[in-house]
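Worked example

This section walks through a single chain of length 328. The input is the sequence exactly as stored; nothing has been trimmed or padded.
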Amino acid sequence: MLGLPLKPSAGYVTNINTGATQQITFPQPDKHGHETRPIHRKALLEALAEELPMDTIRFSSKLKSIVNLQAEEGCDGVHSVVARWLGLTNPVNSGQWAVRGLAIFPEGHGLDVDFQQFVTIGKRAGFAALNDKEVYWFLVGQSSKGEDIPHDPEMIKKEVISNFAKNFPTSYLRVVQHSDLSTISMGRNTWKPEQGNITVAGDAMHPMTPDLGQGGCSALEDAVVLGRHIGNLIIKNKKLVAGDQVAEALERYVKERKWRVAKLIVGAYLAGWVQQDGSGWFMKFLRDSIFYRHFSSLISNDKQYDCGKLPCVSSSNNELDNDPRKIY
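Given that input, the structure is written out below as tokens.
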């Protein structure tokens, strides 16, 4: 049985070229009890799904009702066909690639610190202990135009150990070596600069680089804000309506999220740029003397966001009980 998610108190950033190490602190619980904890996304999704009624979520569903889409295509995050159909801006290549994975230590990893990061010119890697047996790891690098991205997990793992991170500390390579192959993925990082009754959320709406760790969090924010606008519409009409009112509710949702996600997108891109782009004195000063020293406040400010309260829609309403589209 896995332990509870760890509450990181501090981490360390090591410059591979100089050997210098800086300590960074993580935000402590605020007055509302909010705190930072790393968690396996699969565990979070399972916990959320367990709170919903049976058959609420449909997995592996295929689109059939939108004209000009192939049946095998769907709403797939940053590659969302629905987002393209809506005419949303295509993702922009950030000039980075990223590898992610999850290491499993059945007997315990025995790591002394919660979070370690290593930086060198053009590359950045690190790992974070999720609990006493699981460790999340990542590697980010600069991509060349036309560069092929491997997709086979075994090949990706081999490339990380023998090529991409061969000069990184043994502590990092040990974590990568213990990876569960099913969790390893590699791809180019993308971002987006800032109709009708259809909308999207999460990466399909606002892909961002992973440098602030806010991609999944912002998708959950989307869900709450979207649910609030749709819920208020149901309360107002005492049923789920279609037509212009839904379109207006979705427009309000998009308008409310616009500047919040724009800040996260730009912030994540700049965080990646500062940490691994270039070796000049100015970039070193910006990274070592400003960014890492204020890392805690940057992360703290990002999490201080109020999504608002979800309206309470009771299924005891007769009109809702007879509506196959009712919500709980």
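What to look for: The two ends are 32 Å apart (CA to CA).
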